[in-house]
Design goal:
The structure holds two protein chains of two kinds. In chain A, about 50% of the residues lie in helices and about 10% in strands. By secondary structure, chain A is α/β, with parallel strands linked by helices. Chain A has three domains: about 80 residues; about 30 residues, no CATH class; about 170 residues, Rossmann fold. Chain B folds into three domains: about 150 residues, P-loop containing nucleotide triphosphate hydrolases (Rossmann fold, 3-Layer(aba) Sandwich); about 35 residues, no CATH class; about 80 residues. The model of chain B has no long low-confidence stretch (mean pLDDT about 85). The chains are: A alpha/beta, B alpha/beta.
């Protein structure tokens, strides 16, 4: 597969062919890029292949990880025949994550632990439909390849979401004094500051508190939810994450690592309680006693990600939920089981929690997680 | 102006910066294509030094914009000189000018304080614009830069659009504390500045400390390369290596000098412990 410059009748055609080849591999390469390719050739960099390669690499690559793939593509197209190039997408750091974190506690139940090299796997054409399907697939049924794609997609979507949320501003009558405007409106008073203009104050950023259930019954979901939280964390600064099963643990510092693989590995290393039983009430009580004062305030949205299968006393959970609700702006429960047909919140734990909730939603696929945006915006 | 990137290498070398063929090609190309250059890489690998070298080489003045969270238009582009405006209003109180004329006067060029970006494009001579650590600025500011980087113009509500008299040479640097937007990257040439190989680092050390013994320089370079493979809180950059080499030289290179001057190379207690455990316990 892949083309070679000898297949073209002239060098100009070969340049165009190369840009198209790069485009197929997922590199950014618009018309401007074709133009720049030609120009750099005209500046005398062609036919010096080493310099030409450096030049094109700076044009086509947008991050360091892409350079290796680009190098291969370049070699294959301009130098030798028969090199196999892998698609740029599968080379992203997401791949290493799965490799690094496989067979660890957080991977339990994801079915991802068997490492098979997909290497030359046909590239998924990620049109709108493929993305929609991906968003709607239940986490429990994701294949490994899909999960890699989802990592990439989720990063993009969450970033967009954070940008949209930040863009929205609220008009306010209080706030900083806008000197430039104040002068303008006071010219008619001869420069005496009688009226003051104010700048629109930016809406306060959100504070999110996420309580993630990592008990055995959540195995199929907790790994993906954790990845989602990592993505969320890298886009929203004000987010705190706790995990709970039989005991409560703060993992914000672990998932703050820039590298997802490292973050997951750290959680995995420290999470002794992963995949054990569930004592939601007890854990939330612990949270209230020890952390709530510090981390919750009137601006916080608290999100519980759990299936609600509690083995403790429902009364404890009920009280704990009420207390959390009093301390936060909104209390939301996202339950992966809610995505199943015919699901009713009739388990004792869920029943006990329901009255205190502002919102009860599902969390079984990526789309359901994205509904968070609406909730955040209404807050 | 040179015709081949390879000719740049000795020129830049003479200016005290060790450059490889790849970066030379990119610098060559950015001038030819008149595109901004985005340099990414770990802290301390010499990204910020590049525009200074360009400035030296081409003889253009350099203007630097240091980015930080919350950087806004007032600090990056322009601000009105409020004191002067207020005074002007007072002075013209008794004049017969209408309000509209007064407004036009105090929102004119005389009352404008130019910040780096505006300075770079409105200057009468070509300039080099360094936008340092763009990843620290927020996304809003990044979006704002797009207009500047693709069309070399800036819009000021009171004055209209100001186009560049001479297109500045723009260099952006990023430590990659967050991903930059695609739109920004698309407008730039991209170059990743890596930690140097031991040979290159040796050259750099010699460049900064011409009197250093070759053997010591080599020892330092190979050692630093090993240190960089460890998992440290802060991996030492080139600047640290040079500091360390200076430190060792100042201690007259006695046996314990390397051990005692480690604090020049490593900037956290934890890292020093790790390195001492790894290399200095016998």
């Amino acid at each position: 597969m892949g083309q070679h410059y000898t297949q073209f009748s002239s060098f100009s055609e070969a340049f165009v062919g190369f840009v198209q080849e790069a485009r197929k591999r997922g590199f950014q390469s618009g018309i401007q890029c074709t133009k720049d390719t030609f120009e750099s050739a005209l500046f005398g960099l062609w036919p010096d292949k080493a310099l030409f390669e450096y030049a094109l690499s700076s044009l086509f690559c947008q991050e360091q990880e892409e350079r290796e793939v680009f190098k291969k593509l370049y070699t294959q197209f301009w130098k030798q025949k028969g090199t196999v190039i892998r698609d740029k997408r599968t080379n992203k750091n997401q791949k290493s994550i799965v490799t690094n974190s496989s067979n660890t506690a957080v991977m339990l139940g994801t079915g991802e632990t068997d490492e098979e090299e997909e290497g030359e796997e046909a590239k998924t054409t990620s049109g709108a439909n493929a993305k929609e399907t991906l968003k709607q697939t239940d986490f429990a049924y994701l294949t490994k390849h899909q999960s890699d794609l989802l990592d990439e997609l989720s990063e993009k979507l969450v970033r967009e979401m954070s940008q949209r949320l930040k863009r929205r501003k609220k008009k306010a009558n209080k706030g900083q004094i806008d000197l430039a405007n104040s002068i303008r409106i006071n010219i008619q008073n001869g420069g005496n500051m009688i009226k003051l203009a104010k700048k629109n104050k930016k809406k306060d950023k959100y504070r999110l508190m996420v309580l993630l259930d990592v008990s055995g019954s959540m195995d199929k979901y907790s790994f993906y939810l954790l990845k989602f939280l990592w993505t969320l964390r890298s886009n929203f600064k004000q987010i705190e994450v706790f995990t709970f099963s039989t005991k409560l643990m703060r993992i914000t510092d672990f998932i703050s690592d820039k590298n997802m693989a490292v973050a997951l590995a750290m959680v995995s290393h420290n999470a002794s309680h992963w995949s054990s039983g569930t004592k939601i009430g007890g854990c939330l009580k612990d949270f209230n006693d020890n952390y709530a004062k510090r981390y919750l305030n009137g601006k916080t949205m608290t999100i519980v990600l759990s299936d609600g299968l509690d083995t403790g006393e429902p009364a404890i959970l009920d009280t704990a939920m009420q207390q959390i609700k009093m301390r936060s702006k909104k209390l939301i429960w996202l339950n992966p089981l809610k995505g199943m047909q015919g699901y009713e919140p009739i388990q004792m734990g869920m029943k006990a929690a329901l009255p205190s909730l502002n919102h009860f939603g599902s969390a079984h696929n990526f789309e359901s997680l994205l509904t968070l945006e609406k909730l955040l915006n209404d807050a | 102006m040179v015709d081949n990137p390879r000719e740049l290498i000795p020129i830049i070398d003479n200016l005290g910066y060790v450059i490889d063929e790849e970066l030379a090609t990119v610098l060559f190309l950015m001038q030819k294509l008149e595109k901004p250059l985005l340099l990414e890489g770990n802290p301390g690998v010499g990204k910020t030094k590049v525009p200074y070298i360009l400035s030296n080489m081409l003889g253009y003045e350099l203007v630097r914009l240091q980015c930080y969270e919350g950087l806004d238009v007032n600090n990056a582009i322009y601000e009105w000189n409020y004191q002067k405006q207020l005074l002007a209003i007072k002075i013209s109180e008794s004049s017969s000018k209408s309000d509209k004329e007064k407004e036009e006067m105090i929102f004119g060029e005389d009352y404008l304080l130019k910040r780096p970006l505006l300075k770079a494009i409105s200057n009468n001579k070509r300039m080099i614009l360094l936008i340092d650590e763009i990843d620290r600025a927020d996304e809003e500011f990044e979006a704002f830069l797009l207009e500047l980087l693709s069309d070399f113009q800036i819009s000021i509500p009171e004055l209209g659009t100001i186009s560049a008299k001479h297109k500045p040479i723009v260099v952006l640097t990023s430590n990659r504390t967050r991903e930059l937007g695609d739109a920004l990257k698309r407008r730039c040439l991209y170059h990743w500045v890596d930690y140097p190989s031991p040979e290159k680092e040796m050259q750099i050390i010699k460049k900064h400390l011409p009197n250093i013994e070759a053997q010591l320089a080599e020892q330092i370079a190979t050692f630093v390369e090993k240190v960089r493979t460890l998992k440290l809180d802060k991996t030492p950059g080139i600047a640290e290596t040079i500091d360390w080499a200076r430190g060792i030289a100042a201690l007259h290179n006695d046996d314990a000098a390397m051990y005692n001057s480690l604090s020049c190379l490593l900037k956290s207690n934890n890292d020093i412990k790790v390195v001492k455990n790894e290399f200095f316990t016998k």
